[in-house]
From TrEMBL:
Organism from which the protein derives: Bacillus timonensis
SUPFAM superfamilies: 6-phosphogluconate dehydrogenase C-terminal domain-like, NAD(P)-binding Rossmann-fold domains
Biological process per Gene Ontology, one example term: organic acid catabolic process
Signal peptide: none
Alphabetized Gene3D superfamilies for the sequence: N-(1-d-carboxylethyl)-l-norvaline Dehydrogenase, domain 2, NAD(P)-binding Rossmann-like Domain
Any Pfam family the entry gives: NAD_binding_11
Name listed for the protein in its UniProt record: NAD(P)-dependent oxidoreductase
Similarity comment text for this entry: Belongs to the HIBADH-related family.
Keyword Oxidoreductase among record annotations: yes
Domain 3-hydroxyisobutyrate dehydrogenase-like NAD-binding, first and last residues per copy: 169-270
Membrane-crossing segments per the record: none
Amino acid sequence: MSKKIGFVGLGTMGFPMAVNLKKAGFEVIGYDAYKGVYEKAEAAGFSMVDTLKEVAEQADEAIISMVRDYAQNVDVIFGENGLLSAQPKNKTVIVMSTLDPQTMNELGQKVESESDLTLISAAVSGGASGAQAGTLSIMTAGSEEIVKSFQPYFDAIGSNTFYYGSEPGNSQVAKLVNNMILGVNMNAVAEGLKLGKHYNLPEEEILNLLKVSTGDSWVVRNWSDVSEWTAETALSVLLKDLIATYNQGIKHNVSMPFNALSSTQLFDSMGKEKPKA
């Protein structure tokens, strides 16, 4: 009999991740606040339920939370009719949302002190395309024993899993490091292409050069997708992470001037409209 894993948050990232869990042989007990996704989810073979209580009751050992932020995670776990309404024991919430490190640690402490659940953090990188392909990079933190025991779940949705220690917030630090470097690199590629355009150099040939030269990067190799990011999609998420990284630097007196510049120049460099205030 296949293991049942709970999955809360079947959005742009969550849905394909859940699909890959299903393909790997797990039974997905799915829930989303947006009921419009249910028909699509049921067609994909998920066992959809109407309440978070049912998710907690039916999941064998783990529930993945792929909701947007801290407030939504608190509501999923502690809210009226949330996971705790089932009084679950010996189960783990795998928070795959992106939070700041301190907030993730606070969430972990709140779960540990106010319930019989365990929490581990498992931030992901790779975007919607990585979620669909099952090639996400997964940055984990929390109980090492539990993280290792859940490796089959991580293998179903990603290509690489990394462990960063017992503090849940550590996985979020790793993601901020990755996204800070991504943001700096995006600014560099966009500005380089801008200079080439000024001299009427064909953009495709510049990208071909970079791919086989010292300017190569993930951004270069995926520029056709990255260049389409907008304020309504991945750019706003990246900006949030760059600002979070800046705030961590201020808090801990870690100088990161390239990150600060990238956060202010991101939309200008990309030639995109800034998010509305």
